[in-house]
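Hi F.,

I've been meaning to write this up properly since the lab meeting, where we talked about keeping a consistent format for the predictions we share between groups. The idea is simple: the sequence comes first, exactly as it goes in, then the structure tokens exactly as they come out, then a line or two of notes. No screenshots and no reformatting. I'm using this chain as the first example so we have something concrete to point to.
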Amino acid sequence: MKTLSLLAITALTLSLGAAAQAADIKIAFNSVDDPENSGEATFAHAFADALEGTDFDVEIYPSETLGKEKERLDQVATGLLEINLSAISTPYSISPAFKGVTLPFFFDSNEQLDAILSQDDLMETFNAPLLENGVRMVGINFIGTPMGIHNSKKDVSTVADLADLRFRALNPEQLALMEALGSNGTVIAWAEVANAIQTGVADGYFNPPSSAIRGGHTSFLTHYTPADLFPSTRAILISDDWYSSLSDEEKTEVDGAIDAGIQANREWLANWTTGIAQKQQELGVTVTPLAEGEREKMMEMAAPLWAATLTADQLKLWEDAKAKVE
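Output, unedited:
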């Protein structure tokens, strides 16, 4: 009987420990914990606020404190991390069809991308290979206005202005875009960007203004061109094992918190978009729009990348989804 009692106590202890663990939600992201300037932090805090009063305890881990992209993906896949705001390249490394979100000049607006991704059959296609790896994508989070061109040397208003500039690329897809536009680049890790630009290894990068502002790069990236290359986003990834273990009531609470985070992010984006040019100018950045007809030139130069980035079936998937919302 003593042995049975000990086993019972041990089982109860483990059960209570598992229940306590299930009530903890860790949310991690790359950006700083600054809701005013970071769309990631805005999402995280709105998510946490929405779960106030429930049995969930949300812990926020900014600035890669739980590891870099690959490490955080592994943590989500194994259930060690419940929610991760990842670089878009993270899910499409597993689900290549999702690369379409980075097609240059494919989307007319952030609202159009939102409408496209609201189609359940499309998200199911993207999620199929992710779920096989224990990861579920539940939406996207905007980190700013669409991608523009930052550099440390000169105003850029034409395609020709790019020819003598060398840019930091996030991945091979960005590198291909830079080369398609007549420039050149090199893949550099984000942590090394500031040093690379200040030492002349690169002259700038393709990113939204928020990246330069939150990274403290506006002191040397003093020229910006709002080229609207493609939406600047993060993927909202959750642990499928963790989510599947929740009760129906808990899933409803988490789903509501995700919706609250997305809504707060979109509200932040609207406010950010309105005042971003003034904020850049206050920081000493010269904002130079593209000259008339130059964006159309860029679109033509970049168009072949669509077929190079996606298979014919994957591209048709995106084109059909886009046609449904036009």
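Notes:
Residues 1-21 have pLDDT under 50 and may be disordered.
The two ends are 71 Å apart (CA to CA).

If this format works for you, I'll send the rest the same way.

G.
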